[in-house]
Each structure stands twice: as structure tokens, then as C-alpha cells.
Amino acid sequence: MDQVIIGFQLDNERHWIARLACGHYQHVRHQPPWQNRPWVTSYQGRASMLGKELTCVKCLENAPRDWN
Fold first, then answer.
1. How far apart are CA 66 and CA 32, in angstroms?
2. What's the pTM?
3. SS3 of 48, please?
4. According to the model, what pLDDT value does residue 56 have?
5. Pair 16, 29: CB distance under 8 Å
């Protein structure tokens, strides 16, 4: 299920996490060739993705919210 990105934060290992409107977190790493997300590496890139959608695997699994 696609969900809107409403913000970003760093986890304890300093990897970027997207905060989704559904209440879930999702890591958004740039680790080519497996994950190609160069926009994650800069503030401007992350800001450009606010309001865009990501597929939320946790929603597909009916997982509880990560935050309220």
C-alpha cells in the first residue's frame, strides 16, 4: 500500500528513516546496486521527496503503527 512521506529522521546507526502518514517508519537507504536512492544523501533530496509515496510493507502486513 502506498503511503505519503511526511518526514525523515536518523536511526541509532545514522541511517535515514522515512516517517509515513500511516504511522510507520521505513528505512530509505542508498546502497547501490541493491537500493538506488541518491536523493537520501542530501537535505535537498530528502525535502524533494516530502509528499511523495512509498510502498509501505508494514501496512501490507497489517503491522501496528510505529508512532502515534
1. 27
2. 0.90
3. helix
4. 97
5. yes
Of the candidates 48, 42, 34, 36, the one whose C-alpha atom is nearest the C-alpha of residue 16 is: 42
- Sheet bearing 25-27, strands edge to edge: 25-27, 16-20, 2-10, 53-55
DSSP code, position 44: H
Cα 58–chain centre separation: 12
Q: What is the mean pLDDT of residues 33-44?
A: 93
Give the span between the Cα atoms of 1 and 46, in whole angstroms.
Answer: 21
The DSSP bridge pattern shows strands 25-27 and 16-20 to be: antiparallel
Q: Mapping DSSP to helix (H, G, I), strand (E, B) and coil, where does residue 68 land?
A: coil
Q: pLDDT tens digits, residue range 47-64?
A: 999 999 999 999 999 999
